[in-house]
Here is the input.
Amino acid sequence: MSIVLDVRDVWKSYGELQVLKGVTFSVGEKEVKVVFGPSGSGKSTLLRCINMLDPPDKGEVLLKGQSLMEDGVNLTMMRARIGMVFQQFNLFSHLKALDNVTIGPQRVLGLEREEAVDRAHVAIEQVQMTDWIDHYPAQLSGGQQQRIGIARALAMDPDVVLFDEPTSALDPELIGEVLQVMLDIAQAGTTMIVVTHEMGFARAVANEMLFIDDGIIVETGTPKHFFTAPENERVRQFLHRLEVLYGGQESVEQ
Ligand SMILES: Nc1ncnc2c1ncn2[C@@H]1O[C@H](COP(=O)(O)OP(=O)(O)O)[C@@H](O)[C@H]1O
Ligand SMILES: [Mg+2]
Here is the structure.
């Protein structure tokens, strides 16, 4: 399996606050990695370091073998190959759903309008929003907005898509439709890094889960490993808290 993304010993601080303390992992083609861990542990910072919105202080990030941190690298084009789905959707409120999806292919990839629209239709179909392309974000539910957010990422035909707690801003009854779309695109072979506490999603599609605490990857393993025999005490406590808060069938022996 070829490596799509290689994160090597990434460190990041904000002033005195050391947030990431040497994070290393890689993602292979068509793999889904789920990152989870306490609030403030550095998950969003890690994603921002990966797409260089916030470059690491130290370490390396390679996309298909090409360092994103080398001098002279075309960051705009490299970033275009890394999709990002945010907690707060971040759609342009003055653009219809369709144009939220075509704007990247047109502006960043330089596609003609017609080609961008064709691509957008395919991506919007994947998130089952075809009937809503002429609606503005304010006319869509949160779940629908997030599905357009996912279509926007897919329309760029990225090498990997990063999701930062994509369902945590949604009302509970809207979470399922977004998770379903994420399951669909995972099964269709999208390479993904997903920060989420949705353990049902993790169980269904994660090739590997990474537990991050205080800027360090504390434990990694398959969903089966985490749901049956997590080794680290902090991991056990965290999974137990999730179970208490969200219920579900995931049982972690204490
Ligand atoms: N731009 C920033 N400036 C200063 N501190 C930040 C910044 N971004 C994040 N932090 C701090 O870094 C730590 C990790 O934040 P974050 O990566 O958002 O954690 P998580 O996503 O795991 O909740 C937190 O203490 C947060 O306050
Ligand atoms: Mg975060």
Residues 249-254 have pLDDT under 50 and may be disordered. The pocket of adenosine-5'-diphosphate (ligand 1) is lined by residues 14, 17, 19, 39-45 (CB under 6 Å).
